[in-house]
Amino acid sequence: MSINLYFPTDYLSILNRINEIDPIAYSKTRNYLNGKVTYLSPYLSKGAISTKQIMDNVLSKHTLTSAHNLIFELAWREYWQKIWLREGDKIFDDLINTQTEVVNFNIPKNVINGNTTITAIDNSIKLLIKNGYMHNHLRMYVASICTNIAKAHWSSPSRWMYYHLLDGDLASNSLSWQWVAMTFSSKKYYCNQENINKYCSTSDKETFLDKSYEELSNTEVPKILQDNIPFLYTTELPDTHPITVDPNLPLLIYNSYNLDPLWRCDLNANRILLLEPSHFKKFPISDLVLNFILALGENIKGLQLFTGEFSKLIADTKFPIIIAKEHPTANHYKALFDEREWMFPSIEPTGNSFMSFWKKCAQKYLANTFK
Ligand SMILES: Cc1cc2nc3c(=O)[nH]c(=O)nc-3n(C[C@H](O)[C@H](O)[C@H](O)COP(=O)(O)OP(=O)(O)OC[C@H]3O[C@@H](n4cnc5c(N)ncnc54)[C@H](O)[C@@H]3O)c2cc1C
Q1: For 248-307, how does the pLDDT look when each residue is reduced to its tens digit (9 = 90+)?
Q2: Which of 148, 207, 264, 347 is the most exposed place for a label (fewest CB within 10 A)?
Q3: What is the pTM of this model?
Q4: Closest C-alpha among 200, 334, 364, 205 to residue 274
């Protein structure tokens, strides 16, 4: 089985990818590096499609039981999004526990260079940089190596991973790293070589992870992970070209988290893709990710690019109405907000347990099928 790391950006290909989901094969193989995962996260994270669109499509062809594992994973995405809405910028700091045993706030150099000596990890880091994707299990391994083995604080390594991911999503990313580092969970996540070999079909031996879980939780930082470098990445945004707007028509604002071609597509409106330098200064992305965003924007008819802050966009022209999609990155827009499309719109996380969130979702929306 080959690993699919091609991410087309035309809308028809994205819809085809949704249509091709095999939820049964997904359930059986998702944890394996070459498993039949959907590769839909880049489109979900950039707001080109929604979790509900995927769930509705899959349930139109498969039973709830067959689709269980996929919907369960999609629910993780909704859960992280809702934690972000609830906690705001607090998700960028240790959320419920302070990370313990931190020796630096940098990134292990041999992780950045894909030179850890662990075959599956090094290959997946090289693919992340080249293609902008990493399998979920590998993300967990890399996060565990950085935080719990190299004892780096999760914040810089997570920003490094976000920089490269086509599906970079500040909630899924920061909160998953916090889950691994136990700042948003009740125990640190460790992986060992045996586990990596099993899910990645490798046979590495005598690596710094070739130990029991107990040994791993009590070891010094391996020499190969000691060199570290700070996060110093930046994004060069495209220059803004003059835009042509009709001041009598509404203004619809798109951004890197809302690139939905179906959103108010029948409305006669000005459509602007807003790339705010202040956002990308805080959360840089690679050229690969930036080009992916621009290419997804091509699915939206009449979309014009504006590089600058929201206040600058509206400084010179008065529009009858400005509309955006609700999202934490759009909170400062002075606009009317349309709701995002959720699978489980009325369920909010109470406390910090995904499973209690999931149970409430299943009870209300999935005929109580999954407990
Ligand atoms: C350290 C770490 C960092 C991560 N960073 C991101 C990120 O920046 N952006 C991002 O979208 N996901 C992130 N994830 C979650 C997950 O790894 C990816 O969503 C998934 O690998 C995407 O591939 P896929 O679409 O083929 O997933 P599939 O397995 O096909 O899953 C279908 C969809 O379900 C959702 N999903 C699946 N697993 C998870 C999960 N563990 N958490 C949340 N949602 C999930 C995603 O939206 C995904 O597209 C991260 C996970 C970890 C452990």
Answers
A1: 999 999 999 999 999 999 999 999 999 999 999 999 999 999 999 999 999 999 999 999
A2: 264
A3: 0.97
A4: 334
Domain contains 234: no
For 90-109, the pLDDT digits (tens) are 999 999 999 999 999 999 99
Give nearest CA residue, ligand 1 atom 43: 77
Residue among 21, 37, 136, 175 whose CB has most ligand 1 atoms within 8 A, to mutate: 136
Same domain, 269 and 223: no
Provide the CATH number for the domain around residue 116: 1.10.579.10
40 ligand 1 Cβ < 6 A: yes
Q: Which residue has the tokens 């499973």?
A: 355
Backbone dihedral angles phi then psi of residue 314, each to the nearest 5 degrees:
-100, 5
Do 280 and 326 lie in one domain? The reply is yes
**222 CA → ligand 1 middle, Å:** 28
Start-end of H helices in 132-221: 136-144, 155-164, 170-180, 193-200, 213-216
Do the Cβ atoms of 212 and 150 come closer than 8 Å?
no
Query: How remote is the CA of residue 172 from the centroid of ligand 1, in Å?
Result: 7
- The residue assigned the tokens 């179906």 is 262
Q: Show the domain range for 212.
A: 107-229
Select from 32, 170, 172 the residue to mutate for testing ligand 1; criterion: most ligand atoms less than 8 Å from CB: 172
Task: Please give the distance of CA 177 from its chain centroid, rounded to a whole number.
Answer: 11
In ligand 1, the atom with minimum distance to the C-alpha of 30 is 29
Of 229, 262, 288, which residue is a domain's last?
Answer: 229
Question: Are 261 and 221 in the same domain?
Answer: no
Sign of torsion, CA 325 184 285 141?
A: negative
Distance 136 CA to ligand 1 centre (A): 6
Nearest CA to ligand 1 atom 49: 41
* Distance of CA 45 from the midpoint of ligand 1 (Å): 9
C-beta separation of 321 from 250 below 8 A: yes
**Domain contains 136:** yes
Instruction: With respect to residue 34, please indicate whether it lies within any of the assigned structural domains.
Output: no
Pocket test for ligand 1, best of 36, 44, 73 (most atoms within 8 A of CB): 73
Q: Angle 176-92-228 (CA atoms, 0-180°, nearest 5)? A: 80
Number of domains in the chain: 2
Does the C-beta of 173 come closer than 6 Å to ligand 1? Answer: yes
